[in-house]
What we know:
By secondary structure, the chain is an alpha/beta fold. 38% of the residues lie in helices and 16% in strands.
Amino acid sequence: MLSVSKALAAIALLAGSFMSNAAAAPLACKGPAHIHTGDAATIARHLKATGKQVLTFEGYSGAGYQDPDALMREASRILDRHDPARTLINSGGTAEGMGQIYALAKEKGFNTLGIVSSLARQERVPLSPCVDTVFFVPDRTWGGELPQGRGLSPTSSAIVRNSDALVGIGGGEIARDELLAARRAGKPVTFIPADMNHKLAREKARLKGLPEPKEFGGAAAAALVEAVAK
């Protein structure tokens, strides 16, 4: 019998099979050309040398999307507002969930960036073949707010600090924390509601012995809608 952790990993792999055809990696994508380890300040120095603004996409990762085609349509609409010569497209570096937008960004001529916790390297999480440069941030967490009011984790801090604007399309707790922190820092934040993959959410709950979920909008939605209303 599979352990819960192995079963969840299998579900995450299955999520990749739900990726829309629009998200298939173009032939030009050959994997990250540059992989670094660094904190927020190290990343800032690298980005300053590029002379480009950073547009960060936040959303679901392993939870997947109920409507991947809608994700790609929204991302395409946003990308079309920006100049590839002046803008780097950033996300979490990995292939699943929001990572699907890397292929779209490359097709539109953008250079791509990934900022992700060092846990991704330790756990051998696959990187997107369409991310050009990846920074692994030394971190004991995947991101989000640290306990006891200690602020953002190193990874989330690096993402917020080094983003000029952020776009959330759905998202869970980590996306919520980063988007809210960016708003508090006065950075432009756009949020578009989107459901996580319903089937995957139900299966994850079953494996953990939890009640079947009834809401699939993610933690980011309620928090961002409330924040905008204030």
